[in-house]
Every structure is written in structure tokens, then in C-alpha cells.
Amino acid sequence: MLKADLLKLVKATSAVEQKYFRIQFAAASKEPEFLKLFNLITKYAPSNTQELDTLYQAHFPKATSIDNHAQYLFKLLTDSLVKLRIDQDKGFYRYFGLLRARLFAERSMPLRGLQELKKVAKQCVSLEDPLTDFIYIREELSLLNRLGYPQMTEKELIDLQMKAKNKLRVIRQLHEHYSLYEMLHFRLGNAPISSLVPSDLADLLLNELSVISRGHTNTFEQQKLHLLFQSFYFMQSNEYKLALNVFKQLNQLFEANENHWDFPPYDYLMALEGILDNLYTINYGLELAQFLEKIHHLMSSDYPEHFKLKAQQIHLIYSIKQYLISKNFDQAKKRIQHIQKDKQLTYLMVDGEKHAEFNFLASIVYFQEKNFRQAKHYIRQAQFLTASRSLHMLHRAIQLFQFLISYELDDMDYLTYEIRNYKRSFKHGINMLRSEKLLCYVLTLNPKRLSKARKKIALSKCQKNMRHITQEKDEMKLLKHYDFCSWIAQSLDAFHIDN
Asked: What is the predicted pLDDT for the residue at 499?
């Protein structure tokens, strides 16, 4: 597990971060073993721990176990990245300043500790973080108490205490809002929408409105949480157009409050990804380009490499999806080939889910171009990358798409075996969706071998099911990855059967 995390950590480091890490050990007379391991990973970029073990054994056959070196490297690299972030990120710098102030107080220098707190607070005045604000005020009061409140009136002391009390009130409201948001995630993420009764969500919605009505709705953080709550609720309820409207409001809020952004602005990036996901789901290709440009702007801004890497991953995925919406598969294929040729694929390999999604999209493109062998190559990689999340919607879509490829390749024995295994994987109260059952049924019929009359009978049965599918909210979570219903209709000659 640690070696797998080490691979992720090293691959996510930028050239600047790698140089900074190496410089710290440049004075050593002999290259340390952990640095050899670091250089090995950066040079060869092994895709898994088995490959890393093999590489290490091949290059250093006389070395001791890799596990100890990996553990030590993980610790040193983490510490190095934290040090670098202190210089780049005011949030990190603020916590570092608090630690310095406490250290001064412990070493009998409370005045210097107080000066440190005030210096850092002045430099980070634009940050909107009530929890850290409260900790700073509480630390300042403790240091003032040790110093005997020099040159301070009682009114000034009371004002500072009231300031801390107000921060606690804001923290409590934010905590209530976060609690509702997390509970919404839990309920919607662990049960199908159709299985939830109105009362399962009504209490959350009412409580959220209550928090908003009595809270400081004029603060950026409160408004952000309110819009996040609404957008997630509408997304998970498959009300994508409503979710899109809320996401646009959230985007406007971020753009009007750039001084309150975290550094780097992950919240803003995730909001943009939510907008892109909604646009792709409802096939709004023209608007998608507008928000891709906003992602591109973040990529070219002066943010840390790990953030720009995440933005690059999102941009690559949705630049392909943009062509899929317009069914421009030739341009989509060129984009995929350019990503691979330009070595941009390494950006995606850091994130297993994004890498799997890229392979899935590539498989769809080659499938549409009737290059089923190449489609099979990509879908196998996607299956491997999502194997640990077998009931996740992306993995289920990948698995079902692999069925289509096997069908087109006339590998019916393998297909029958895989469908049987797939059905067995559903247990512990999780049921197959209607679209999954329908696709398995049609594939088992083998439409290529059916007469026109039998196809017409099968299509009549399927159309009734498909009408239900389009009305069920849970189905959209699967069908947004690929429209299996359209494939079913096409395989049964729905567009030609009346001629």
C-alpha cells in the first residue's frame, strides 16, 4: 500500500519539486539509497508496485529490501513538499506561523510569539477561514495573559474575546452546513434515488434552508456551501439542467470573490468539473468549450504543479468528450493520438479513475469506427484500472461496453460466461438497473442471428422497457457514460425495421 502511494506521490511531483528535493541531498558524498529509488521512479515511471520491485531488483541487485527505502523516501518527500508549500500557500504558511509562535512561547519568548502571530495574520488577512482565525485569537489571548496584557485596556480585551466568540458562532454554522452536505452525500451515494422516500431528503433540505436563513449568508463560505449543497442534490437526483443553473451561480460567486480563493483553488476547479459533467450529460457541446477555456486559464496561471496537473487531467478528458457530443469521432481519435504522442497521458496516469475514463473514451471512439480490436485493447486497460470498484457506475459502464465489443467480435462463448459472472456480482442489496438487464437480454438473443420478424417482436418488448428507462433517474447515472439504449435499438434495426 505504501509503495503504491509512493508511486502516486512521486509521479505527481513537478520538475521544480523534484529539483528542490534533490538539492537537499546534493552535498552527500555518496548517493543515498532512497534517492536512488526516487530517481528510478522519476526516470522509468513504473505503473504498479510489481513493476517497481522488478526495476529496483534489476538496477540494484545487491541492495537491501526496497520496503525500508520506500518508507523513508515517502517520509522525506512528504516533508520536502510541505516545506515548499509553506512558501507558496498562505494556508500552509499560516499554520507554520502558529507553530513558530507556540515554539517561541515554549522557549520563554511570548512577546516574540505574539509578534509572529500578528505578522502572519497581517499577511493572511484576505483568507476567509474562521477556524484558523479562532485558533489565532485564542493563541493571542493566551500569550497576552502570560505577558500581563501590556498597554491593553479592558475594553480592548473584551473586544478580542467577543471576536473569538463570533468566530465560534460562524464555525458552528459552517459545521451544521457541512454536516448536512456530508449527510446528503452519504444518503444519495449509498442508496438508489428511486429507493429513497421524500422524508429521507426532506429533513436535510429543510435544515439546510434553516441554516441559510439564520446564518451569515453574505459570507463567501456560506454562499459556496449553500450552492454546493443544491448542485449536488440536483446532480444526484439527475435534475441536470437545474444542477447546471446552480453550478453557473457557483461559478459566478467564485469569479466575483477571487480574493477568497484557496491557494490553489481546488474548490473552484471542482465546481468547473461539475459544470462540465452536467454539460456533457445533457449534450450541451457549445457551452462546454467556454468552461474548458476557464480550466485552461487555471492551467496557465501561477499555481503549484500538483494543481495544474489536476486541471490538465480534467481538460484532457473533456476535450475528448467535446467531440463525442458532436459525434465527430475522427477528431476525437486525433485528439487521443495527440495526447499519447505528446506524452500527456502521463498526466492522467497519476489518477486511476481519470486514466480509466480516458481508456473508456478511447474505446468508444474506436468502437464507433468499427475498429473493435483496438477498442478491446483500451477497454481491457479501463477494466483493470477500475477493478477495485466493481459496483461503481463507471466500472459497470466499462464492463457493459466490453460486452458490446465481445459481441461485435462474435466471441459469444466468452460473452455468455462474462454476463453470467456480471449478474453474480450483484449482492448485498444492490440490484441491476433495468438498462443492464435489458442489454444482457438483447446480447443473449444475439440480434445478428435473428430474422426480421423476430427482431420486430424483440424490439416491441424492448421499447416498452426503454420508455421506463428514460423516466427513471437512477438510469442516467449509467447511461451518461454511454447510451446503451441507442445501441439496443440500432442492433434490432429500429431505424429500418418498418421499411
From this structure: 38
